[in-house]
Amino acid sequence: MTNYNDTYSQQHAGNRNPQYPSVPLEFNFREPYGTRFSQFRPIRHSTQDQLILPRGYKYDIVATWGQDLGNGEKFGFNNDFTCYFGSNPNEGLLWVNHEYIGNMSIFVTGYKEEPGGPKRTPEQIAVEKYNLGGSVIHIRKGTDGKWTIVKGSPYNRRITANTPINLTGPAKGDAAVGGVTQVIGTFANCSGGKTLWNTAFSGEENYEGIVEDWSETPGVSALNPAHYGWVVEIDPSDPKSTPKKHSMLGRFAHENAVMTLGKTGRVVVYSGDDANDQCVYKFVSDDVYRPELGKQNSSLLEKGTLYVADMGATKWVALDLNKTPKLRDKYKTQGEVLVNTRDAAKLAGGTPLDRPEDVEIHPRDGSVFIAFTNNTKHGNYYGQIYRLVEENNDHESTSFGYEIFISGGPQSGFACPDNLMFDQTGNLWVCTDISSDKTNQGAYKFFGNNGLYMIPTEGSNRGKAMQFASAPVQAELTGTWLAPDGETLFMSVQHPGEESEDVNNPTSRWPFGDIPRPSVVAITRQ
Ligand code: FEO
Ligand code: CA
Ligand code: CA
Ligand code: CA
């Protein structure tokens, strides 16, 4: 493996532009590079109700909505982020987010929303609450090469909208959260990340609509919206552990949270706020990471600075009462600033962007890739992926430069980038999220169903999108994660048949031919 830091400084010494501090201009890494996964013959766009992969690849269903985990628990709905734990490439724990139910309540609870029609019943809300949050599943690859759940494993666990979760950081106990130190439940869990101490981050994203739907139901207690919109930390290896919501990482529609280290060893976490005209954030801890402390490093997430990106000034602006005095005109406590992150960000000069989604760090050069899905309000239908480079290539820097790495559109072959993943050799994998009600229509007709694309970031194919997977009808592919040996790609197939209006006549019958069932798949080479 190339020692990247040495190669980087040799190639780029004296090649720094202050406006664009350290974006690597050209690479000469030897080709071919890539994992076995990156050597495939690209597929074409498709509108078929199938999960289509390149020739030579197959998938198994690892977990499907409602599946019995063998301990009285069932796998939740609309699986999104997946994250593998353990160094054994054939057996480990998979954390899986369960995001939302929405229109698909017709399959989950039988409820169909009609204008002026009845609200959900308390029983239906109870089913919805159980089906969201996340799952820990113990999985194993059999001698037949198929991945399955180890039923009844003590690690199998559900975290739901009913699970008690501890609040940490400045908002803990603050009046802005009603003075509480613990909240009930997590939902709207979209994407996430892995910490350096092997726990999972889960981003609470579109919680607002869910809080509203549930709170307006007669007979169901109203939820405090300030208890949601955080990043949750879960320890899959300890089934008895209480998850944490880290208020220092801000409160907004968190797509994901990706962790890395700065040059002095501080922990840095990047996160996008997936809504029209919202911002990109990063947190930098006060104290440094000490590997020997293991999971105790989690307390690093309780003290530090949350920054918002000012893309015009190319600066990170601190959302901190002491560092940005104008915040004091509006907020009295740091907890209040964090509960109101979006408004504080705008007050401080954060740049409204086009739905910032996943953020991932390039494994070779440390540059920060950010997916912007779209912003149809601005006529941005296809989205972009930015590549941001911190000054001195240091994640603790407060200045950066950036380029548009690739734009969605027919010229690149994909639209609406959402989840990002790097393989070990630096190829970028991009899941697309064209809304279910817009796929195969108008500006999106060209692209067929949503897909998964691989985009080399170096070499002669740099910036060329090659399609690896095509989703079933109205589904989105999300949550890609490679097993430690790079031989299995885990992936969620979320919301197939989302626009169905009739359970007897669904728009998708993936995967089993009856009703659509969100499922996690394991993709391997045949
Ligand atoms: Fe849940 Fe931003 O996708
Ligand atoms: Ca997403
Ligand atoms: Ca990701
Ligand atoms: Ca999305």
From TrEMBL:
UniProt xrefs under PANTHER family: DUF839 DOMAIN-CONTAINING PROTEIN, SLR8030 PROTEIN
Domain of life: Bacteria
Biological classification of the source: Bacteria, Bacillati, Bacillota, Bacilli, Bacillales
Protein name: Secreted PhoX family phosphatase
Organism: Peribacillus deserti
InterPro entries xref list: 6-blade_b-propeller_TolB-like, PhoX
Disordered, as annotated region: 1-22, 496-515
Record Pfam families: PhoX
Skewed-composition ranges (Polar residues): 1-20
